[in-house]
Amino acid sequence: MDMLTKLGTSLRKAVARPGPRILTVKAAWSLTPNMIRVTFAGPELSDIPEDRAGGNCKLSLPDPGESREAFLRRLQEGPSPARRTYTVRHIRASAGEMDIDFVDHGDTGPASRWASQAKPGDFLGFQGPSPAKVAHFEADWYLVAADPSALPVAAAALEAMPRDAKGIAVFEITAAEDRQEIDAPPGIAFHWLVHPDPATPSTQQADLIRSLDWPEGRVQTCIAGESGVIRDLRAFLHQEKAIPRSDTYISGYWKIGLVEDEHQKVKRSEA
Question: Is the N end or the C end of the chain the one with fewer CB atoms within 10 Å?
Fold first, then answer.
């Protein structure tokens, strides 16, 4: 590839990827003992389609005490702030509002630290969101599974399903009090599994899913979470149950012992 071709490619990418919006916090609170919900509000959100709930986004995080002007200058000129991938939980475009849920890890990561201290008037950079991970619901039966990191994408998928949908939702949470109210169809059966130490491997989700009486008909999935769990479930669904890949959204969102940048490198190397 010659220099002009490289330059053209770089320019096309730059045009295709607009800079981040600056979003302002309207409210932040503990949704459950280990999950923080932050509501953003402002005209910057008015053009985001309502059907993007469940889509992923990139959050650029200011340093503690950093002014909006200094943060904007850093976005434009560098050095780049810390960025993390999150899921849009709700969009209320007519009201100019959006919710994003953060697993509360305390001060162990930049996003959790920011969310645990967020208050009205605070800000961050936002890029996205992508389309929802499950955009079409055409199955006879649905399998949804997630740990806390993926609970928002799973909940958004459940709430977007037809009201006559049938299936199973398997959620592995840190404490029993982390159960959430999800407006799922009545035909979805919920299983809440408690795993108090997410830093240690767990087979609870895979064990339960393997024990299910598998239904007749077409199955679609929305499954995400820790990479070791996902690897096991992917093999089960694709190889043992022969579910077409086009009917399975299944993704590793994190890996025990790795921060996001390290995990993304591993995912790219395994792709």
Answer: C
